[in-house]
Amino acid sequence: MQTINRTQLFRASCLSLLVTSLSFGIRAGTLNDFGSLFGLDKTQLAAITATAFYGFPIAVVIGGFVVDIIGMKRLLVLAFLFHLAGILMTVFATGYWSLFLSTLMIGIANGTVEAACNPLVTSLYTDNKTTKLNHFHLWFPGGIVIGSLLVFAINALHLTWEPKYILEFKVGLMLIPTLIYGYLFSKLDFPVTERVASGVSTAGMYKALWNPLFIFMFVCMFGTAITELFTGQWIDVLLKNVSDNAILLLTLETGVMVLGRGFAKPVLKLFSPQVLLLISTILASIGIYMLSTVSGPALYAAAIIFGMGVCYFWPTMLGFVNQNMPKTGAIGLNLMGGAGMFAVSLYTIIMGRHYDQIVAAANGNSVTAGPKILQATLVIPLVLIVAFTGLVIYMRSKNKIQPLQQGEGIQELSV
Fold it and tell me: What CATH homologous superfamily does 6-396 map to?
């Protein structure tokens, strides 16, 4: 008989997401260094970055289709193997294509983690989904903070090693939490997904995906993901000419996100998820506008406001869908995540080329390129303000759908 240790499973899930976010934080802090080492331009760097973002949706969508069949544990074993391979391939990278393939492997690993862990969290905490998804996704910005600070600290040491060895050391640090989460998951029993436990058929799950509200949220996920992840991942590149500490701006922004998601429970008592999304979009718009127009110490205020804005986007989008449309199950959660990352991958490629075009038009002067890219991106959260205003109005006029009831309670061990 299986005994499900909810607390240990949640902790191991958070650690696996930490590895996912470390890959973002460390990549953000080493992107320019890799470019210098291998002689890559911004178009090539954008293509490498985008690889992680479209490796993610491939994995998260496929994972969404098979998680109920093979189980969440097997998916997480695959995530561990992809993480291990991707990190080692990055450590031993020799140029553009090796970086491209290693980043793709890490992106697939990251997507597989989300494909398993998002339905795992909602299955473990059926009565508190959005709050626990925020607590789980706290470790995404948390890992970016840790990764960014590690990169900053290593840079501050002014090591006399060859640049390639320093980069290998930075990336290799991700092996430590990877090995730990792989070990933890191998020792734990897993529940079935909430959809399976509640008796909703596979056909019923696919039918629920055609709900107009789900389609609306699916499309909105494009915008919230681009606003959060493109800006965060490229902040070092976009603002390197207007700030000597662009990577610290990323650390400050993500630090705000950690605090915000940590306090998700009282915040969600004050605001419904749809109202929280509207407030978040307004703050994100203000933050991006300030990042693109101010300089000096005001940039830190801009990073704080932007962090407050994007803080609740990802987990609250997932929580809203699963709470209000629970029959969409794991595939609904994972299609949302896949949509977001796929949008970011395409947008990153487009903006990387646009960045190089701006620099070329200015005869190599890149001072204004970053702010111009941010100003173009500002259009997205402005559109989302209109969309989420409509969502708030719609939800006020609609009877709320009650979440599925778990057929069997999950046994909690004392720890």
Answer: MFS general substrate transporter like domains (1.20.1250.20)
